[in-house]
Amino acid sequence: MFALYRIRCGLPVIAFGEAGVGKSALFRFLIQTLLGHTFEVCNVNSGTTIEDVEKMIESAVKTISINPDIQVFLFFDEMNTADAPVIAFFKELMLDRNCHGTVLPNNLHLMAAANPYRYMQEADKEAAVGLAFRFAQSARSASSTVDGRNLVYRVNELPVAFYDHIYDFGHLCDESEETYIEEICRHGLSEANFSKNCIDYYASVIKKSHQVAKAMSADPDSAVSLRDATRAVQLFRWFCLTPSGRKMAPEGRVAADLAIYLVYAFRFRSRKTFLKNVLGKDQSASQNMIKVSRIIAKMLYEQAHEASIGSGAIALNDALCENLFALYVCVLNGNNFF
What we know:
Elements: H1 2-8, E1 13-17, H2 23-34, E2 38-43, H3 50-66, E3 72-77, H4 84-94, E4 98-99, E5 102-103, E6 108-114, H5 122-127, H6 132-136, E7 166-170, H7 174-188, H8 196-216, H9 220-223, H10 226-241, H11 243-248, H12 252-263, H13 271-279, H14 285-307, H15 318-333
Parallel strand pairs: 1-6, 1-7, 2-3, 3-6
Antiparallel strand pairs: 4-5
């Protein structure tokens, strides 16, 4: 509530905390649900441009011009993941209260969230996997002397002028996180399609996945987030309710195994250890993943083979099958679960 008092005084608010701990959800609840004001989220990333932000501002100003009495709140989520010129533009908007020299309306309120600028633990550096950032991008930008591969989040430093307006959101305690997970499962898995026992079981599996992931990580605060829980629910629902998903997971238990494997276990080198700690010694997730991924990979291979790939050009080992299956599921969902 203190943040709302600052906003009413025309002062910006920047919530500083781990990704996926409920920063935007909390502000949406306070502003949209409790106060009844308009609340819009601008999801910022390294590809966000100044033009993208300008469009958000122009849209908000247009809304205000139609209804001058309305209070509009714009929330720039993960603001410091943007490039330096975009962050400088945020400074102009939030602190100077103008957009390229044009003063912003008093009933347009700007807020933001930022991720910590923190170095990765040595153990997590060794555990890091993936080629996208390591080889496809430059480790250092022209304006930074810090190797981005050593940071927990791919973020840039905020201007010093922002420091007086940053508030530490912290991270969720275990009890609060479990409450959020239960609500995410109840909201994402309708009782019209899933039994209460099924929802409770899957919520317990996600809770256990979070506990084990934190225990296996050198940096528990950033090991998992509520976004992972949301992805897990979305993926489980897709496996259970869509024709494509049901072909891969004809039973609810198989759907749960595949969803947990893709969202949580897939990030660890010792995946079987993670799955045993979450699902028990008799867990079937590993075998289900191998079985389904081989079927999908073989299907994709045969289609590609007919087109251009010669016989024996690709060895369909388990690692390749898993990667192909993960990409296949992402494409079908139109989302990235990793």
